[in-house]
Write a structure and sequence with these properties.
This protein is mostly beta strands. Helix content is 4%, strand content 24%. Strand 5 (76-82) and strand 6 form a beta hairpin.
Amino acid sequence: MALKKYKPTSPGRRHKVAVHTKDLSKEKPLKRLTVGKKNRAGRNSQGRITVRHRGGGAKRNYRIVDFKRKKFGISAKVETIEYDPNRGSNIARILYADGERSYILAPDALKVGDNVISGEDVEIRIGNTCALKQIPSGTMVHNVEVMPGAGGKLAKAAGSGLTVRGNNGKGYVIVKLSSGEVRLLNENCLATIGIVSNPDKLNVVLGKAGTSRHLGRRPEVRGVAMHAVEHPHGGGEGRNGFRVAKDIWGHKVGVKTRKNKRTQKFIIKRRPVKRDKK
């Protein structure tokens, strides 16, 4: 999908960049495949804010997306490619040969009228789902399971995908994540061929603060703009040199927090460390 720019008729439109939606369906989502979604505004069950900078935004219904793809051996035809307000990627509505309909993550280059299928010994084609052990090396996949039968957990964001590196001969398949990490996954984990749709989302420019509010994002304030009692970066006459980056509670930013020793053995190569430019 191509990007579109706007004429500078206002300050908010001068730098705005959006993704063309002319190829998406104009139909309303299938009602029985949607559920109401209440805006929690970042609050937990006790009403306390646990995720900051969330709230407001347009109302939306949640689309029930099938991340498991467990209907083996039954071909399905793509009826529509639709916009989903709950995620960056598009979704596809498919009609199975037995009459059942469902939503799936739409891979890039999937079109209306295409057929998709999941199961064993399926053709390696965009939109088809099979076990990792059946996918040849070098293939890009998305919606990948971490545990067999648990549903897709990896590579579900717009434009993301994993690269299959081959089987290690011990019941595991080597995959490379988009972060650069190389790890092992069970060879029976299901994966869908192709990358997720809408890769141009990374190039979108909102243009104005109002668009961010429509998406349910509230303003963030820089720590250096606060008083010293409000943030470790605050206070002082002007900016006070270099300090160790900390969050609002005084914890160091960028410190590794991964402590899952049970799965350490599955990581072959960690993602590269990002160095700050000076």
